[in-house]
Amino acid sequence: MVFYNGTVFTPGGLMQGGFRVENGRFAEFLPGASSGDEDLKGARVIPGLVDIHTHGNSGADFSDGTLEGLKTMAAYLARRGITAFLPTSVTLPYEKLACAFRTAQVFAGLQRTDSSLDSGGSGAARCPEDVRTGYARVLGVRMEGPFLSKERKGAQNGAYLRNPDYEAFRALYDGCGGGIRIVDIAPELPGAADFAAQAGAYCTVSAGHTDADYREACAFFDAGAAHVTHLFNAMRPFRHREPGVIGAASDREHVTAELICDGLHVHPSAVRAAFRLFPGRLCLVSDALRCCGLPDGTYELGGQQVLLRKGEARLPDGTLAGASMDLCEGLRNAIRFGIPEETAIRAATILPARIAGADALVGSVEPGKYADFLVLGVDYNPERVYMGGVRIQ
Questions:
Q1: How far apart are CA 228 and CA 196, in angstroms?
Q2: Is 12 a domain residue?
Q3: I need a surface site. Which of 26, 83, 113, 275 has the fewest CB within 10 A?
């Protein structure tokens, strides 16, 4: 099938033309294409968004460990143009994490026939129709906790915090078929650098919920960590005499970072500064909670009460929790805050896919990748959503 007459975001930037889709994957970009099967009518077309840090939405939370809850999350995300994601846990006992991670493994297995993300199969032939159509792709899972700092735990439940334990991590990793794509660690905790050196061979190790100073952060990144969790939040601030994790990460070109762009967690000026501190290395995330997509009310996070009031999700003591927005809104905000359009798109598509180790399959309009894309309307709202070349919204 040939889609034509669009303004398509490609690895080279926005280009006029279209593309051919075969067996659910991009087969060829067609510059200047003005005829074919489906007219894009000049609209902007971008790859499906990729969220590598999202806990829940629509009343569901990944850490609940239910297949129905994960399906609820994936259906909402797909409708919003987030076509691939890493369901993200909170700090909980190991047995509850294991349950949630196995659920993600089952769901991802229903979405594809191949046992590995990079196998190159079509992923459609034996997939149940109710899972294959209309659900965002689960790329693996993200393990946020329990190896976090009590001083910077934020809205994480302090009762379940632990020091880094590589054996526990490997048991969870093996228990979900190697599905952990990112694990969050506070660099100052005992054994954190050794953990990064070992776990970094299996997934992306990220510095998060940390009170680490610059020296501790440098040792962590030099040992094998390569990412920073929700930059500026739940960490020491960047200071001219003690730059902390932010300075250590910015100094190292192999380290990426992520940002919650809801206008609440990070001021628009700091958003612009972050993109300058991490040129080409900053991705957007939602950090969305189960209250995402729902009205003000009382919700739950890791056994704790969360109050949503006028778009702000907080614990009863006023601690800022995650976000009530999704990544589609975060992308619009980034552009509204002054981030160049192409930079913002990359930060919500190919870069998070690369951090998750899934850029061979999603994140850009390139031959061989899943034909997941959005046709945008006014103000970057997804007017049409396609997965595998099939319209789902």
A1: 13
A2: no
A3: 113
- Strands, sheet with 180-185, edge to edge from the N-terminal-most edge strand: 141-144, 180-185, 204-207, 227-228, 256-260, 282-285
Q: What range does the domain containing 56 cover?
A: 48-362
118 has a pLDDT exceeding 80: no
**Considering the domain boundaries, does residue 28 fall inside one?**
no
Could you give the angle at the alpha carbon of 21 between the alpha carbons of 117 and 41, nearest 5°?
Answer: 125
Q: Which residues of 240-262 are buried (b: 16+ CB within 10 A; e: fewer)?
A: eeebbbbbbbbeeeebbbbbbbb
| Residues tagged active-site | 287
**Number of domains the chain contains:** 1
Return the CATH number at 284.
3.20.20.140
Nearest to 50 by CA among 91, 89, 20, 80: 80
Per-residue model confidence as pLDDT tens digits over 54-107: 999 999 999 999 999 999 999 999 999 999 999 999 999 999 999 999 999 999
Cβ–Cβ < 8 Å for 43, 49: no
Q: What is the pLDDT of residue 112?
A: 67
Does the global pTM surpass 0.90?
A: yes
Distances in whole angstroms, Cα of residue 202 to Cα of each of 188, 199, 207, 343: 21, 5, 16, 28
Tell me, yes or no, whether 38 lies in a domain: no
Mean pLDDT of 352-375: 98
Question: Looking at the domain assignment, is residue 338 inside a domain?
Answer: yes
